[in-house]
Amino acid sequence: MPRPAVARVEDFVVKTDTPASRESMLQRERVAMLIRDRMAKPATPLEEELWQELKGDLEKERLTFRS
Fold this sequence. Notes:
This protein is mostly helical. It contains three helices and no strands.
């Protein structure tokens, strides 16, 4: 990437990178805790079936980038 473009991206990140509010951080913690709790449990047969179906759909619709 040319140097001027890098400088502009860095300026943008600095200008828009504001700390999150305390309420927002607490909400993120709660969501992370829920995800960790759910991941600790084994998948149900229905969830396994849904994941297999999703995998199959993704395999069918796999895009190739060859011309």
